[in-house]
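Progress against Task 2.4 (sequence-to-structure conversion) is shown through the following example record, which the project officer requested during the mid-term review.
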Amino acid sequence: MKLAEVWNQHLTTGTVRPLTHDDDELIYQFQASHPAYFAHFQDHPVTRQEAIQDVTDVPLNATVDQKAYLGIFKDQQLVVLVDLIIDYPLPSLVWVGMWLPAKSVSSVELASYYQSLVTTLKTAGAVQLQLSNFMGDRQMKQFWEDQGLVAVQTTTVTKGSRAANVTIYQDKFR
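C-alpha cells generated for the chain above:
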C-alpha cells in the first residue's frame, strides 16, 4: 500500500505525492522560505545540501524503506512538506520528522490535512503518531494541541554544536 495514494483518497483539497531528488530545487526553495523554523536548531539558513539530504535521511535504527517524504500540493503549489518514519521507533508508531506548512495555508486547511493523515495512518495499521516541536515555536505548539496531541516529554536535541529544547507530542489513535 503506497501511503501517498491512500492519503489522496482522504484529502478533500489538494493532492499528496512522494518527493524525490527530482524535486531538489522545489524542496530547497520551500525549506529556504522558512528561516524561523531552521533558526531553532542551526545558526545559518538552510543550505541546498541540508534541504535535499532530508529526502533520504533516516534516524538511527531506521531504514530508508520506512521513510515517506511527501508533499501536499494545492493548485500545483507545494503547501506542506511532510517527513514520516513508519514503524519508528516502535512498530505501529509513526514519527513525524517534519511537518512544514507554507505560510499561505490556513489553520483550517492545515487541520484538515492533518486529520486526513491520521485517517490514512489508521488505515495503514498505525496506532499512534509522535513528533517533536521546538519549544520556541508557539504557533505549531498551539496547532498540535488544537489537534488533540498531548505533550509526553521534553528533551534536548543536538545537531552539530547546536542544541534545541523540544517537546515530544503524541496522538494515540482511537
